[in-house]
Amino acid sequence: MDDWKLSEFAASLASEAPTPGGGGAAALCGALAASLCAMASRLTARRKTYADRTEALSAIIAHADALRLKLLELIDEDAEGFKPLAAAYSLPKGEPNAAALLRDATLNACKAPLAMLRSVCETMALLEQAADICSPLLLSDVGCGAALAAAAMDCAVLNIYVNTRTLPQDAESEALEKEAGRLLDEYRPRAEALSACVLRRLHGI
After folding, report:
1. Is 0.90 topped by the overall pTM?
2. What is the mean pLDDT of the chain?
3. Does the chain have fewer CB atoms within 10 Å around its N or its C terminus?
């Protein structure tokens, strides 16, 4: 993702090329959520009023920055993970070991979206911390981060399930779906709750 401009990424996303696709969009949403978390924390830390929170804010910033970079890397990893899958689907009928190759490629294609989901869940936990200690003037940014995190989680899980649905129900595919479902069930409501809480605080709804 280092050489991409947002306009180029959006144009590529809109093109006929299979990647970047939903997985890349999920990672970008997650990276934006982490960026907003870091920004709100940085701007708060600059104010003398919050000097007693410097250590906590610095920890959030460092973690959010690392997650942002990881999520941007996952855009490329997701695209790379799709290549063997596309090749496996293109194998001629009767190819020896075609089923095994397709299964392995499908499992591999799930790695990046699952890593995205894990990273976005970590980002969500940081946003909750930021909501408690950041300046009220930056609360809207934290809320936007939570909304983006929710979208990123949904997109990452969709990109896992579109692959696992084609797999035989064995230990590996069940473990993938179980972890994805567990993370979504735990962190998606937290993202909704934080976004709704910010909305109530800002607009009294």
Report:
1. yes
2. 94
3. C
Query: Could you tell me the pLDDT band of residue 114, with boundaries at 50, 70 and 90?
Result: very high
Q: Which residue has the tokens 């129900």?
A: 169
- C-alpha separations of 192 from 41, 83, 150 in Å: 20, 34, 7
Of 113, 135, 128, whose CA–CA distance to 63 is shortest? 128
DSSP class of residue 169 equals S
Does residue 205 register a pLDDT over 70? no
* 91, pLDDT greater than 80: yes
| Residue 25: closest CA among 1, 49, 55 | 1
Dihedral class, residue 47 (left if φ above 0, else alpha if ψ from -120 to 50, else beta): beta
Question: For the chain, what is the total number of helices (H) and then of strands (E)?
Answer: 7, 0
Which of 101, 122, 124, 111 has the alpha carbon at shortest distance from 175?
111
Q: Give me the pLDDT at residue 88, please.
A: 87
Q: 200-205: long-range contacts (C-beta < 8 A, 24 or more apart)?
A: 201/136, 201/139, 202/139, 202/140, 202/143
Return the structure tokens found at 138. Answer: 């930056």
Predicted pLDDT of residue 8:
92
CA distance 129 to 131: 5
| C-alpha pair distances (Å), 162 with each of 91, 111, 150, 177, 178 | 20, 13, 19, 11, 14
Q: Hey, is 24 helix, strand or coil? A: helix
Return the pLDDT at 93: 80
Listed residue (138, 152, 12) closest to 68, CA to CA: 152
